[in-house]
Design a protein that fits this description.
3 helices; GMP Synthetase, Chain A, domain 3; 5-stranded antiparallel beta sheet; single chain; SH3 type barrels; 2 domains; alpha+beta
Length: 164
């Protein structure tokens, strides 16, 4: 990708985030990510809500952004805008995703390739607290856990752990 195209995409993504902010605030939502794919004339906007994202929220944000995109310079005349949830199996990108997931099971992949699963107990801008359940050694034995404080700089990604 050329440096000029990268700068254009970055600027467009920032502009879309700026346009989306008032509508997101009005709906109580938060922005997770904006991805522009100029070669496909595609713009993906990922949003979420602490109490669960509803399709109506995505529709309102989409209509709000279309107004700006339709009149903005540099936006392709025929673009495809998708506003949706980031998906349950995608890594966390913003602080609000961690905060929303406190009390839920998560999977953490460390920079060294080691994975851990556990209950997210706490989050701050520097670290997470994870309750990791140890394997049961004897049948009928109560599960034991250890609480670990993990520096965010050691984490490659964190995402919700989906259990059935």
């Amino acid at each position: 990708m050329s440096p000029l195209l990268f700068l254009y995409m970055q600027t467009l993504n920032e502009q879309i985030a700026e346009w989306a902010f008032p509508k997101l605030e009005e709906l109580g939502c938060f922005l997770v990510d904006v991805i522009s794919k100029p070669s496909a004339n595609k713009i993906e906007v990922y949003i979420d809500h602490n109490d669960g994202l509803k399709i109506e929220m995505c529709e309102k944000v989409s209509r709000h952004l279309e107004f700006y995109l339709d009149t903005a310079e540099g936006v392709p005349a025929s673009y495809n805008l998708e506003v949706s949830s980031p998906g349950m199996d995608n890594p966390f990108k913003v602080e609000q995703q961690y905060l929303k997931s406190i009390g839920k099971n998560v999977e953490v992949l460390f920079q060294d390739g080691v994975k851990k699963e556990g209950l997210l107990k706490d989050y701050n801008s520097k670290e997470i607290t994870l309750e990791v359940f140890l394997p049961v050694k004897k049948k009928g034995q109560a599960p034991k856990s250890v609480t670990e404080v993990i520096d965010l700089n050691t984490i490659k990604y964190t995402k919700k752990k989906i259990s059935f």
